[in-house]
Amino acid sequence: MVKGRLYIFLGVLTFVFASCKVKQELPTGATPISQIHLKRVDKMPFHPQPYKYRDWRKTAVDFDNYIFDFKQKGQYLPFVWLDGMKRNYPDTTFGIYTSLGDIRMGAAVNNGENHEALGALGAVLGATMVGIDKSDQDGRNYVRMLRNYFAKDNGWKVIQNFTNKGAHIGGGYCNDFWYEIHNNVLFYAVADKYKDEADFDDILYQIAEQFYKSDSVMGSSYSYSYFDFKEMKGHVNHIPTQEDVAGGYAFVLYSAYQKFGDKKYLKAAQNALNVLYNQKENRYYEAMMPIAAHIGARMNAELGTKYDISRFLNWTFDGDAVGREGWGVLADNWGGYDVSGLGGSTVHNGGYGFLMNTFDLMLPLSVMVRYDQRYSDAVGKWALNASNAARFCYPYEMPDSLQAIPEYKAITKDVIAYEGVIKESIYPEFKGITPFAQGDGPLWYPNMPKTTMFSVYGSGHVGFFGGIISNTNVPEILQINCTVADFFASQKSYDTYLYYNPYGQAKDVTIDLGSKSYQLYDLNTKKLVAQNATGKTNFSIPAQSSSVLVLIPSDQNLELKD
Prior knowledge:
Structural class: alpha+beta
């Protein structure tokens, strides 16, 4: 039971849930939330075809069991190994392959220290989100092992994509802004789930200091290909400038403000968000733009700022990015397959949707709805399409004729997927086949085996779907958890779920509340839809619209303010 008063932001109104046995009815006449449309999502189908619900939670659990099994034997196995080089910290860490059979990696290559944080962090966070304790799994603390990616030895003092960037095979390490920033976002997220992990608070503090200092250096321009955190200087190389990393900065710095209470981090977080907000053109490069939408919505709710987050959302979805031309979210049908919802390039060979990018979109968008319900219809419709289209990356979900290497699919055990789905393959031998599941692995390095079409590190982010998406009794109506990825929340929240109804008529959805008693409050209609509800409970969702339900314990008093 919650003690004292618990303040939770519900759109533009704030309700107080106090521990009190007295029941009070809410005043009538509250104005329902008006939805804001995103034109790209409006183009997506209400009923994507061919439709099938994939159990993403089970996929995430099975992936973890398969990948982290050191006893696996055979070609390309096991997928995980121990790295005893003890970079940055005097501990053994672990590595997992970027792609299946990646010859650049493994225990016997470069002393076993060529492995990516993006894969390790995604796998640990994803597993955690589906209920697996990665701090104590088969006698190993994989959470603690992530410390080795904190670059103390080279003076950067942030999470880098390799424990030793000099070990990166293939001509040295390519500095790339989004890799550094996104890995720090993921590390902060992991740290929030494991608050008692030794040394993590110190690492979080040092990262926050480096982000604060570098934001101060960049000031009003994030127009760099990467930032050197040792010399505190931005650089431009052959990679396009990546202004959208400011969204990742805003997340890390705002999280640091919540963690440490130092207002300088808040000021820097707002500067980063303002720099991106004031861009004259869409500078979406990889994964940071939707994070800006999340933090913008959260600041609006908690601080009273006035960001029009449609700017960040349209830049995320529309596919009119410059620099990295066409980066956005697909809204299309290829050969009878609705691929709408996949994140990636809208122009490369007609369009190329990537699995990891799609998984990663779910983290900020699911949480954003908790802070701004005006986008709940758009997020709900996107999630329905994305969860269906993402399964086309898995070899057992596609006909053999529409994938690159069906002869190898048995080794995936249906938990390792192709890197993505493309309209027209980049490989000449598959020309004219659409849609087509493939990967870029064979292009990365000489003599790469065909199996590198399968993306181990991208598949490892599956827990982002698995911990957020659940099925309901009505086909195509999903339950989206809006709180599980609310990292470093300023206050404790009651469980909050988004439900989107794509049908042309109202639908009754059944949820199982177990033995506890709840009152169900819909943030969209601003009404109680059930009181003293327990066990299996029904509620209705209007046609082609959404409900955002908060599960409030029945012994909590509701008091309307402002």
